[in-house]
Amino acid sequence: MSGNKTYTLVRCRFIVDSENIVENLNVIIQGNVIKSIGHEIEGDEIDCSNYVVIPGLINAHTHSGMMIFRGYYDDSELADWLSRIWDEERKMTQKVMNIGSEISVIEMLSKGTTGFVDMYFNPEGVKEIAEKYGIRVEAGYTFLDSMMEPHEVDSRQRKLSRTNYFKPIVNVHSIYSTSVDTLKLAKQLAEETETRIHIHVAETRNEIFQSKKKYGKFPVEFLHELNIVEISQLVHLGWVANWELEYVEMATHCPTSNMKLATAGFFPFIDMIEKGKNVTIGTDGPSTNNSLDMFREMKNTVLLQRHSYWDTRIKALHALKSATEEGYKLMGIKGGKIKEGYMADLVLLDSDQLYPLKKDRIVSNIVYNAVGENVSKVIIDGKIAYERGKFSARKKELLSLIDNILI
Ligand SMILES: Nc1nc2[nH]cnc2c(=O)[nH]1
User: Fold this and answer.
1) Does one domain contain both 169 and 86?
2) Which residue has the higher pLDDT, 190 or 353?
3) How many distinct structural domains can be found in the chain?
4) Which GO MF terms are attached to this record (predicted)?
């Protein structure tokens, strides 16, 4: 199905987004946008009577190139894990990162992810891969002082160009792995290249102690003093003070990674939603999650909140909204809703995996019961980017390559 075509998803069993649930209606796709939802049919027809259609899922934080580290030095503390990983990353080639990113992209796409935010060291490769598979991505070089000289990061980043599927963002690993000068350079770069900063913040209690000791401030407070927090997407944020929240604009929750690394804390999901902040969900990398399945992540988002806060203020719908509408908002794309004029980025789920098929249960069944394997087709930018089984030969090829270079 080409992106210039008009076609209709006919008799969708359910069409579900963060605002509406409708049954047995058609979605007309014209070019790369949703033209209408109703009873009309235009162009080619795709029978969707056995599909539940949802907006594409945005994985708001991952490290796609880390596929080679999946399961490596697992089950250790974040600080120990990081120092070992950094030693390995200093020896890693772009080729190895790109193989990892391509496997990650195939995995994400096949599980309903239509866009992702990537923090690693191979954005040129990621850009090519994103264009090849037609998946949306925001990526950039990463400021991490022990890995690359900051001015080198700055000059490489300025050469990255924006394309239809790729947007450069300024990645900063964290406040504990970069100097104040690096943070200032990153801020200037983000402003001059008109993008945002994407940074791990307040991931562990130890980070808070270190920040207090070194800067006399909490991490978010410190970034606020540098006028950085307002233009930043803050990832993890499990150990943020309530009064710091007023400075935060964009935050991303990675519940599985936080639980696995025993760093979980209390990501203030509902508090931030109530304050009108942009709250998104990410899997984190294939080595700290280790899955790249956003369905699991939606479920774990709800579960971790309920476990931490001992209440049920967070609902399944919040998780769905964060993974769709809020993800698109973060990326600055008119998508994440199944509505006239919105981007035709859609996921078709097998309805027989979402039983009982009842209007008042469908969101629960998507968030708490669905898994990536229930995805049958993925449409991005009006084109069918994935159908079950597609890319399995390429994935096998890539896996055999990675098996031969495993550390
Ligand atoms: N959770 C987590 N994952 C990472 N992957 C690479 N760096 C990090 C980090 O600092 N935290």
Assistant:
1) yes
2) 190
3) 2
4) guanine deaminase activity
**CATH code, domain carrying 10:** 2.30.40.10
CA of 361 to the centre of ligand 1 (A): 35
Query: For a substitution probing ligand 1, which of 67, 97, 200 has the most ligand atoms within 8 Å of its CB?
Result: 200
87 and 17 within one domain: no
Q: Where is 13: in which H helix or E strand?
A: strand 6-16
Mutate to test the pocket of ligand 1, among 203, 237, 252, 292 (most ligand atoms within 8 A of CB): 203
Do 157 and 259 lie in one domain? The reply is yes
Range of the domain at 317: 57-331
d(CA 397, CA 291) in angstroms, rounded, equals 20
Same domain, residue pair 79 and 202: yes
The set of protein residues with a Cβ atom below 6 angstroms from ligand 1 is 63, 78, 82, 174, 200, 203, 257, 261, 284-285, 288
Residue 305, SS3?
Answer: helix
ipTM: 0.95
Query: Is 58 within 8 Å of 115 (Cβ atoms)?
Result: yes
The answer to whether residue 278 is domain-embedded is yes
Residues 26 and 175 in one domain: no
Residue nearest to atom 5 of ligand 1 (CA): 285
Q: Among 269, 199, 260, 275, which Cα is nearest to 235's?
A: 199
Q: Are 342 and 323 in a shared domain?
A: no
What does the pLDDT look like over 386-406, one tens digit per residue?
Answer: 999 999 999 999 999 988 887
Based on the fold, state whether residues 254 and 176 are members of the same structural domain.
yes
**pLDDT tens digits for range 322-359:** 999 999 999 999 999 999 999 999 999 999 989 999 99
Atom number in ligand 1 closest to CA 254: 1
For a substitution probing ligand 1, which of 66, 75, 82 has the most ligand atoms within 8 Å of its CB? 82
Same structural domain, 221 and 272: yes
Residue 62 CA, ligand 1 centroid: distance in Å: 9
Task: Kindly give the distance from the C-alpha atom of residue 130 to the centroid of ligand 1, in angstroms, as a whole number.
Answer: 22
Count Cβ atoms below 10 Å from residue 223 Cβ, excluding itself.
Answer: 28
